[in-house]
Amino acid sequence: MSISNRSLGKIVALATLGTALSIFTIGCISVTVANQNKIVMGVQSDGHTIAGLTKTEAHKYFADLANSKLQRKAAVLSYKERIFQIDPSDIKLHGNVDEATEAAYKIGREGTPVENLLNQMRFAIFGKTVTMDASFDEQLLNDKLLAIKKAIDTQPVNGTATLAADGSIQKTPAVTGLDLDITPLAAELAPDFKTFNLTVQKELTPAEQPPFVQDTDLAAMDGILGSYTTRFYPGDRGDNIGLAASHLQGALVRSGSTLSFNSIVGPRTRDAGYKNAGVIVYGEHAIDVGGGVCQVSSTLYNAVLLAGLTPVERTGHFASSSYVPAGRDATVADGLIDFVFRNPLPHPVYLTVANSGSALTVYVLGTKADLAGKSIALVTEGSSMRPSLYRLWMQNGEVVEREFLHTDAYEPLKS
């Protein structure tokens, strides 16, 4: 009996298929037996195989893995030469051991029996990785970052200019402030902590907060452009004068800018420390909180005129004042009357005050070259009830400009 080639081919194919089915069946049985109550074949974590471990053994593996990772710093943050460390214990950083164990054990066990068998065979051949993540206390992280912020943050400090006894100007440099915004920092660190990506190294970049008065503002300042002194008696009125004048100390007016007396001194209230003292209201003597502050604005007004600055807003009193010549006062009132001046000079000017307890002097410091060698005098013409004020610009002892400022009309004080 002869067998055709075609028949022989069928016999060989059937035999090969039978062999393959046998091998597949044996493989399935082997995988099923090997994976029974254990993590299935092919599963690994952190570069190590964990196949064949029981749940208890896998839990210990993940716990040991977490402990080994937690030996490192969670983060090392730096700003210039300063170093700030965040330890895992600072934020209660811990591995999610239970979750990782459960996830590893569920691999190849979450479908139908046939799906599980096929998946287990696939994982045994191609492998499967389980990654353990971590958790931490977000409030503790925020508290830690707040402490770092407190250590870094600094308030800007204005540069200052003070008059020495010999009339020279002593300058102290400005300090640039720092402000660390921790909200984006916390958001940036969180993903690394949650994925156990330790140790995070980061250079902090706090925002710089420049002061208002900078070194460049004072650089060319070399002398007194103008000054004026008025006198007063100690007491509640004198205390009000000292308090208001203290707000002028260190005021800088850049070229082309203006200064408002009311804005820089602020409201004259009891809460601000002002006391009741004598004032003149519509020609009559009275007592009111903040009495005496107009002497400060009037002293400033005269210093401003002598420094070559430009009055923008100025109002005379109802009646002439005793502390300045007629026509050279500048009254102020909260929210009603202000004294404002502008700096027309090329460089900034800087105010400084001296208060002896019975005399107030306002100095306007600046760059002497801005006055081009000119000096200034004030001249009042007319009667004491209707004075006209002129500013005289002089050079080499001669008047080169006669500037009319204003004419006031006073009323007599009521008895």
Key traits:
415 residues; alpha+beta; four-stranded antiparallel β-sheet; three-stranded mixed β-sheet; 24 strands; 27% strand
Assembly state here? single chain
Unreliably modeled segments:
20-27
Can you give the mean pLDDT?
91
Largest sheet, spatial ordering of strands = 13-21-20-14
Major sheet size, sense and barrel closure: 4 strands, antiparallel
Per DSSP, the total helix count is 10
Number of strands: 24
Helical amount among residues, as a percent range? 25-40%
Strand content: 25-35%
Tell the overall outline.
Answer: rod-shaped
Radius of gyration: 43 Å
Distance between the termini: 154 Å
Structural class: alpha+beta
Could you characterize the architecture of this molecule?
It holds the Pfam family PG_binding_4. InterPro entries: Glycopeptide_resist_protein (IPR052913), Vancomycin_resist_VanW (IPR007391), YoaR-like_PG-bd (IPR022029). This is Vancomycin resistance protein YoaR, contains peptidoglycan-binding and VanW domains. Keywords: Membrane, Transmembrane, Transmembrane helix. The protein is α+β, with helices and mostly antiparallel strands and 415 residues long. Among the domains are: 5-69 and 97-132, no CATH class; 220-407, no CATH class. Helix content is 32%, strand content 27%. The protein has 10 helices and 24 strands. The protein has helices at 5-35, 55-69, 97-106, 113-126, 138-152, 182-194, 215-218, 236-246, 261-265, 293-306, and strands at 43-45, 48-49, 75-79, 82-86, 94-95, 128-129, 134-135, 160-163, 169-172, 177-179, 200-203, 207-209, 223-231, 252-253, 258-260, 276-281, 284-289, 310-313, 340-342, 349-355, 359-366, 375-382, 387-395, 398-407. The strands form 9 sheets. It has a 4-stranded antiparallel β-sheet with strand order 13-21-20-14. A 3-stranded mixed β-sheet has the order 2-1-6. The longest helix is centred in the N-terminal third of the chain and has 31 residues, at 5-35. It is rod-shaped and about 140 Å long. Residues 20-27 have low confidence and may be disordered.
